[in-house]
Amino acid sequence: MTRCRLGWIWGLIGVLATLGSGQENPTLPALPVTPPDEPAKASLISQHEGLIPGQAALLGVRFQLASGWHIYWDGLNDSGLPPMFSWTLPEGYEVGPVMWPAPHRYILGDRDLLDHVLEGDVLAVVPIRVPDRAKPGDRVRIRVRADWLVCQAACIPGRANLSIDLPVLTDTTQNPESRWAHLFQEALKRVPRAWSPASGIALSWSGRTLEVHGERGSHMEFYPHADSAPLADRFDSTVSDSGTLRLTVEDGDRLIGVLRVHPPGERSRQILGLNLPIGSTRQAPDTNRFGWLDPEGKLNPMADTGGTP
């Protein structure tokens, strides 16, 4: 099924759900649309117990998926669309880009379709900027409507209206981690870091082919983003066990995606984000819009992430 047809289906689902609810943006309790025995459950959680004026808080839309089911990564997919979020925030609060974990490849049929999917317990981390004028002692409600497609042999659309209430606190010494903090710690390990030469992964261009060089014998995979220029070969050129990838770009002016590198042995993998103008090994200036960590693994400031009121 093409992305165009799926987009049309999403639109129809939205219209029907809106008609059924009688309002444009329903604010129901945080309950999944599907019954508890369905393959996906969604919830809204926080890394910390409260909010601090002038600082970014990390919230997460958590998807608990039944075994064998998947949702789609926010990248290039032939047969599905990623979850979509519509936020309702108090005045002055801002939301940054979703920090998606790296996916894995999912090939359908005899190499007919290639998707990039997420399975198991998936946390989409979202930074929220708390305004300086937020008043300690207040309680704040943050809402999000989540729409998703969960698939196995067939696909089922889901929707949930989620919310979380958090107190505004004076400073970080009063803001302990929540019982969900370990989920954020694990999720952030799978969020890409923006590539830099310090990563030890060398990049060079030969015409419209990007050559990626790591340690000999490293397993490499590249997951193209939906906004990337198309690759000449999405199936074979994006995987290598030699420590070298060669990615040839067809039309377009930028190669965008996520690179996963597993060195030989038991050493830690690297997950790196690439946002490269064709012919350049310098990251494009809008790299922060993808929600990646900086090259050192730190959160990017909300001021640089394109946050919107």
| CATH uppermost class of the largest domain | Mainly Beta
Q: What percentage of amino acids are in beta strands?
A: 35-45%
CA radius of gyration: 20 Å
Unreliable stretches (pLDDT < 50, length at least 5) are: 1-36, 303-309
The CATH topology of the largest domain: Immunoglobulin-like
Strand order of the largest sheet: 12-19-18-15-16
Q: What's the CATH architecture of the largest domain?
A: Sandwich
The description of the largest β-sheet is: 5 strands, mixed
What is the count of helical runs? 2
Q: What global shape is seen?
A: globular
| Number of beta strands | 19
Measured as a percent range, the helix fraction is under 10%
Distance between the termini: 35 Å
Query: How many structural domains in the coordinates?
Result: 2
Return the average pLDDT rounded to an integer: 87
Structural class designation: mainly beta
Question: What's the name of the CATH homologous superfamily of the largest domain?
Answer: Thiol:disulfide interchange protein DsbD, N-terminal domain
Order of helices and strands: HEEEEEEEEEEEHEEEEEEEE
